[in-house]
């Protein structure tokens, strides 16, 4: 008997199972089966995906005959029958379509899902099985899934707890084994990193202008609205908190959240948006401006100096700020320049790259300054000379941009790419190994020997030099 698909004209669609997400359309029409030929369930072909991939399964019905009277198929159901348990989610009203997140596994395993169709009396008509093989990722220690993209660097405490701010409005505290310790819904999108203090407090700024304070155990101590937009705070040795706003202000807060003082330049032109604050051991406050400059303040809020670099090549962009042990401030500006400025605001040196800078600067234990550019990574000596340059093009498809940079305790450099690759580079600028995330890598941090990366699918990965952790 000729078999054909009535499902197409009834808008019952099959979406290929994909490691980067399932598709599929809504089906508001009833499913019908021929009364003169066999009716069978079709769960599709078998597929292979990576751990933690977003997967979609969509069933369809095969009908026999062409012009027979029709009776409605009352129900279509998916259920898992083998493999590590996953949550099957129906994103719409069409029960023939389900999504799930592939589980974390250290060895290859196969999941099996049964598609069943029922008539209006509840009797089973037919079943079919879809098999999904899940491959492990080398170097992956664990993965933790949030509900939206991650744009802020994870912060890692001395005890290995990983704090992650997600655009799903939650801050997550993740145990060293990848399990959730606690989470808190701030009610607002989060795009700045958590800031940790030596006494175990966690500060977090939300995109709607609220600063939150938590204990390491997740107790929400206080929150304070400052302005419509606030940025990454800095914390002084005495516990004072300093934070800039999109209205060009700088707030100084006491540890209990009360206001200590406010610096207001009296103008509002985005020139002094202090997008990041660092506090030196002597209490001097350094703010990195959105147009790539540095402004220094005394602990009482009086302005000391500012530095804006090459005004002839001005552009509204900055690439992060870091303080050296000797008080030198290193920061990026104008997309292609790294500056070193002494604690008095005097230029020590500047370095211009041939490519756009794509990460903040980080300093290794030996004083080497590291940062990534679109097609690689630089290591500079403390005098601004080039120690080495790593060309990523043999390891990353040349249409992908390298972004994010972190240095492990042993000097290993980690960079990510928007093609999803995490690259490990040794202290001499030589490639070591790589790991593939499921989506574009958006942030990179490190702690101990491990790298912690977030991707645009909302997953945090803990990667280790061990191939099979």
Summarize the structure.
Helices cover 0% and strands 47% of the residues. By secondary structure, the protein is mainly beta.
Strand content range: over 45%
Name the structural class: mainly beta
Q: Characterize the overall form.
A: globular
Structurally, the number of domains stands at: 3
Number of helices: 0
Roughly how many Å apart are the termini?
53 Å
Helix fraction?
under 10%
Query: Can you say what the CATH homologous superfamily of the largest domain is?
Result: YVTN repeat-like/Quinoprotein amine dehydrogenase
Number of distinct beta strands: 42
User: How many whole angstroms does the radius of gyration measure?
Assistant: 27 Å
The order of strands across the largest sheet is 2-7-9-10-4
Ranges where pLDDT stays below 50 over 5 or more residues in a row are 1-36, 311-317
* Main beta sheet strand tally, sense and closure: 5 strands, mixed
| CATH class division of the largest domain | Mainly Beta
Fold and architecture overview:
The protein has 3 domains: 3-135, Immunoglobulin-like, CATH 2.60.40.10; 137-190 and 355-469, 7 Propeller (Methylamine Dehydrogenase, Chain H), CATH 2.130.10; 226-352, Methylamine Dehydrogenase, Chain H. The strands form 11 sheets. It has a 5-stranded mixed beta sheet, with no helix packed on it. Strands 11-42-41-40 form a 4-stranded antiparallel beta sheet, with no helix packed on it. The protein is globular, with a radius of gyration of 27 Å. It is 0% helix and 47% strand. It has 469 residues and is an all-beta fold. It is built from no helices and 42 strands. β22 (250-253) and β23 form a beta hairpin. Mean pLDDT is 86; it is low at 1-36 and 311-317.
């Amino acid at each position: 008997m000729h078999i054909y698909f009535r499902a197409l004209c009834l808008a019952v669609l099959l979406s290929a199972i994909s490691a980067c997400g399932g598709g599929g359309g809504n089906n508001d029409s009833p499913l019908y089966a021929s009364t003169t030929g066999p009716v069978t369930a079709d769960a599709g072909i078998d597929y292979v995906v990576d751990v933690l991939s977003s997967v979609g399964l969509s069933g369809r019905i095969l009908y026999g005959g062409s012009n027979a009277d029709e009776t409605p198929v009352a129900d279509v159901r998916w259920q898992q029958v083998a493999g590590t348990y996953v949550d099957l989610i129906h994103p719409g009203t069409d029960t023939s379509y389900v999504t799930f997140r592939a589980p974390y596994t250290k060895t290859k395993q196969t999941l099996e899902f049964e598609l069943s169709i029922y008539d209006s009396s509840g009797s089973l008509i037919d079943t079919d099985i879809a098999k999904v093989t899940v491959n492990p990722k080398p170097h992956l220690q664990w993965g933790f899934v949030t509900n939206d993209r991650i744009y802020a660097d994870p912060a890692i405490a001395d005890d290995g707890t990983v704090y992650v701010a997600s655009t799903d409005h939650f801050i997550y505290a993740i145990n060293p084994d990848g399990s959730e310790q606690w989470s808190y819904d701030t009610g607002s999108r989060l795009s700045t990193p958590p800031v940790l203090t030596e006494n175990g407090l966690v500060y977090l700024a939300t995109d709607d202008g609220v600063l939150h304070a938590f204990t390491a155990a997740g107790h929400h101590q206080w929150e304070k609205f400052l302005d419509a937009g606030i940025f990454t705070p800095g914390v002084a040795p005495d516990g004072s908190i300093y934070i800039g706003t999109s209205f060009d202000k700088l707030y100084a807060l006491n540890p209990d959240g009360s206001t200590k003082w406010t610096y207001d330049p009296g103008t509002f032109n985005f020139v002094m948006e202090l997008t990041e604050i660092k506090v030196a051991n002597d209490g001097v406050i350094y703010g990195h401006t959105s147009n790539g400059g540095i402004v220094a303040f005394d602990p009482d809020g009086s302005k000391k100096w500012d530095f804006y670099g090459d005004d002839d090549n001005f552009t509204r962009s900055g690439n992060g700020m870091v303080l050296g042990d000797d008080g030198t401030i290193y920061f990026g500006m104008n997309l292609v320049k790294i500056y070193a400025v002494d604690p008095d605001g005097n230029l020590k040196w500047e370095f211009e790259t041939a490519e756009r800078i794509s990460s903040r600067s980080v300093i290794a234990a030996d004083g080497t300054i590291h940062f990534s550019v679109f097609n690689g990574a630089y290591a500079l000596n403390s005098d601004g000379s080039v120690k080495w340059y790593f060309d990523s093009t043999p390891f990353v498809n040349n249409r992908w941009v390298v972004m994010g940079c972190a240095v492990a305790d042993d000097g290993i450099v980690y960079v990510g790419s928007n093609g999803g690759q995490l690259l490990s580079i040794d202290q001499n600028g030589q490639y070591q190994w790589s790991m593939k995330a499921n989506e574009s890598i958006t942030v990179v941090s490190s702690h101990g020997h491990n790298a912690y990366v977030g991707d645009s699918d909302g997953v945090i990965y803990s990667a280790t030099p061990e191939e099979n952790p």
